[in-house]
Amino acid sequence: MSAIAGNWVAVGTVDDIPRRGARCVKNGDMTIAIFRTADDRIFALEDKCPHRNGPLSQGIVHDGCVTCPLHNWVISLETGQAQGADEGATAAFPVRIDGSQILLALTPAAEKAA
Amino acid sequence: MKEKLVIIGNGMAPGRMLERLFEAAPGRYDVTIFNAEPRVNYDRIMLSPVLSGEKSFEEIVIHGDGWYIDNGITLYKGHKITGIDRAAKTVTSDKGEIASYDKLVIATGSNPFIIPVPGHDMPGVLTYRDLDDVNAMLLAAQSRDKAVVIGGGLLGLEAAAGLSERGMEVTVLHIMPTLMERQLDPAAGYLLQRALEERGINVMCKANTKAILGDGKVEGVELADGTVIPASLVVMAVGIRPNAQLASDAGLTVNRGIVVDAGMRTSDADIFSLGECAEVDGQVYGLVAPLYKMAEVAASRLSGDETARFEHMDTPTKLKVTGIDLYSLGDFAEGDDREEIVLRDAAAGVYKRVVLKDNRIVGTVLYGETADGAWFNDLKRKQTDISEMRETLIFGQAYQGGGQLDPMAAVAALPDDAEICGCNGVCKGKITNAITANGLTSLDGVRAHTKASASCGTCTGLVEQLLSLTLGDAYNPAAVTPMCGCTDLGHDDVRRLIKAKGLKTIPAVMQELEWKTSCGCAKCRPALNYYLVADWPDEYADDYQSRFINERVHANIQKDGTYSVVPRMWGGVTSSKELRAIADVVDKFAIPTVKVTGGQRIDMLGIRKEDLPAVWADLGEAGFVSGHAYAKGLRTVKTCVGSDWCRFGTQDSTGLGIRIEKFMWGSWTPAKVKMAVSGCPRNCAEATCKDVGIICVDSGFEIHFAGAAGLDIKGTEVLGHVKTEDEALEHVVALVQMYREQGRYLERIYKWAKRIGYDEVRRQIMDDAEKRKSYYDRFVFSQKFAQVDPWSERVSGKDKHEFKPMATLSLEAAE
Ligand code: SRM
Ligand SMILES: Cc1cc2nc3c(=O)[nH]c(=O)nc-3n(C[C@H](O)[C@H](O)[C@H](O)COP(=O)(O)OP(=O)(O)OC[C@H]3O[C@@H](n4cnc5c(N)ncnc54)[C@H](O)[C@@H]3O)c2cc1C
Ligand code: SF4
Ligand code: FES
């Protein structure tokens, strides 16, 4: 169950997400993808590739990046920025781990605005 | 004070000249270049691969902007020189720039010739010379409409092949009776025409263009005999003319081209000329090899060496159309004093002809099999008396001496001064020396040091053979292309080491083989996952996080993030019950599109990910299993109705197809595998363009392999003939297993088979019964673990997390 605590919303536990994988959180019309890397870091991005809106949650997670399933853009999990020669960014949301709970803030991190 | 060197034109010839000049006389000149084309120097030869999509422009740049900066060159891009003032020693550009020179080099290349028929200046009529032409053609090709190429020479045919590759319907008009008549004799011209026609390019010889029709833009071409060919694009590739106007305006001696002496000097001692615009000893040239020679001579002269001289040379012609091998050299006209030796192998599409005069080679035409080109060229260049080997000459070098057939031995036997790279005039000795002197281990290294195979690339195979000859086992061609940025190892090495070191998990592979990243990337992980599944079927635990989404969720992702579902329809046969079940599922889940696929089954498109398990549950109840339409694995086995119904059917093709599909479904392969079984040679199941195909005949089954009908189109090769269905199944299974064990990830069967050799496949599968049986057994073993319907597994709860959101916030957030 999800509950809102201040700005932070609890969306599930770390174990809900496979390592090098992702799960989705639906927030109204928006889908947010929560990623778990090989070393158990958790990141949240809007589930929309800056290229053509591909669902990033369906991509392959490697190091701190995810490769989009539609046309292989590589997106940084931390910043949402496209890597390499591609240009564009998707919104990144702050996450916090409390015990095994994942807490998500629903305002995008500053990178996006910059 | 540095001397001022000004160059007009920035093509391949002056580019090479500057490289040599900077080596011979560094810092001597202040260099300024004016180029009418608004870009740096690139490999013009490779425009055809850019047109066909095999290369990008960035890949064919010879000197990037950095090179000009590093060498202190001022490059005026998009400046056309409009006048040379020889008295004042200045040149002036159309943008008003004036530059003075101590030495001037004119390298303006050629202009494409345009036949002045009515309509030649309409939009939609292009030439084929530079990147702008290619870009214009690519734009036109988006229409996938009809195109006409006027001119059946090298350029015209490369343009035609490229446009056809890009989806246009192309007709080539050629005024002469056979194609490339200047380089090919009629027999080879005919074979070439047939090969192009097989690729869907229409060829009309003796076609005399009368007018280009259209109202404001091209609509068609009219021939002298009144025929009208509709087209929205016309490419004229009918020849080139040396671009000598500027020189003749300046009062230099100009004949066909700008007349220069053997030292590349024009009639003005301070002005040089080289490239296609220059005429030496009455000859002009249109291939880069002689132009690069000119560049070397000009560089020597400019660096103060007055001895360098250009000498006439014959250059072999090769056509850069993938899959067409053609080689022509010298003079092959008939004559009373000439003799010829001809070899034809109609089945293999091979034609070879050597023209002799006084027992010496004067010309060679090779079609279909061109490996001996370099050897014939060498004999010709050295004017070797061939009487001793006359009987076997035409069979090529491998037949001379000890009757060896090994291509490696043939290259080993070439003398050190045999030319390997025609474009850059690099001989064998230079390459082997560069390899040893610089410790080179890769093709790229050889290219960087010698330029060999760096232009048109047709000698790449020879250079690789030289690398293996010189380095022995230390040369490992796979090292040339690492799997991805995470490792220096190529696919073959990784596969070998996985077996040799007994590596059974992805982390183990990455650790033992020293991966450079912590957990790989989207290129290597799916490949490793496949290799491990294929090599350790019973032990490896499939890593779903290393599979592409389609294989991870067993459905095909669509552009809007929904999925499509394709159930198996064995051999393309279905029933009212199955169709009814599909209809019910479509209604129940409001599936927006239902489509019959190109693989004889039904695709339901636009299903929400969350609905997938429920859709599969309903399909499963009707007996459907996954069609693996998403898998690098067995896709479809297409069949025709065969002896059950068809009046021509010789065997039960439908039954055999279903049997194969039921036997092989579920197997993972390096890339997808598609098969077909046709009941007779009419081949209604299109078996001869599949990865594996079977044609039933009265006496049994003809097994085919290595066809392609996707990005590339290629008819199959015949594997062999067998008498019974059981044998057919065993051979097909063994072939696929061989591919599963050796193929590189994402390499289709036709590419794999070409790489290792069709004969090698036949030897192992047809001739070596023991080998065949062991491949077969290993496949059967791996199927024990692979033939589990992934859909029913997921219906029973596997990977539940994939199909459900982790949380839905809308309600709480609204509170
Ligand atoms: C559905 C179908 C088109 C149709 O409506 O008929 C289709 C659809 C797709 N094809 Fe195909 N191909 C389909 C038959 C073919 C055929 C014809 C055939 O199988 O007889 C070919 C030519 C033969 C061949 O395989 O080469 C074909 C050559 C390709 C290729 C080029 C492969 C190549 O190596 O040349 C791709 C791209 C790739 O695989 O990388 C491709 C890729 C695709 C993908 C998977 C594109 C993608 O990555 O999303 C499409 C998936 C759509 C979906 O979700 O279903 N499809 N595709 C056909 C499914 C057949 C089936 O029942 O499984
Ligand atoms: C599609 C295609 C395929 C080919 N394939 C092969 C092949 O397989 N093998 C082979 O050996 N050869 C091939 N060639 C031929 C080869 O590319 C040419 O022979 C070679 O590039 C000519 O070099 P160049 O330096 O003489 O002239 P170019 O490369 O033509 O350079 C001349 C340059 O001068 C510029 N220029 C002209 N006038 C002026 C002016 N007044 N002021 C300033 N700049 C000016 C032009 O814009 C042009 O950029 C091919 C050519 C084409 C077009
Ligand atoms: S040809 Fe195949 S890959 Fe291309 S759009 Fe059609 S279905 Fe998709
Ligand atoms: S939508 Fe992500 S790469 Fe195209």
List keywords for this structure.
heterodimer, A: 114 residues, mainly beta, four-stranded antiparallel sheet, 11 strands, B: 815 residues, alpha/beta, five-stranded parallel sheet, 21% strand, binds siroheme, binds flavin-adenine dinucleotide
Report on the structure:
- With 114 residues, chain A is mostly beta strands.
- Chain A has one helix at residues 110-113; strands spanning 3-5, 8-13, 21-27, 30-36, 42-46, 60-62, 65-67, 74-76, 92-93, 95-98, 101-105.
- Chain A is globular.
- Chain B is 33% helix and 21% strand.
- In chain B, helix 21 (653-664) packs parallel to helix 22 (725-742) and helix 22 packs across helix 25 (769-786).
- The chains are: A mainly beta (114), B alpha/beta (815).
- The A-B interface holds A 2-4, 9, 11-12, 16-21, 23-28, 31, 34, 37-39, 52-55, 58-63, 67, 69-70, 72, 74, 106 and B 517-522, 525-526, 544-546, 548-549, 552-553, 557, 559, 561, 801, 805-810, 812-813, 815.
- Strand 3 of chain A pairs parallel with strand 39 of chain B, so a sheet runs across the interface.
- The complex binds siroheme, flavin-adenine dinucleotide, iron/sulfur cluster (SF4) and FE2/S2 (inorganic) cluster.
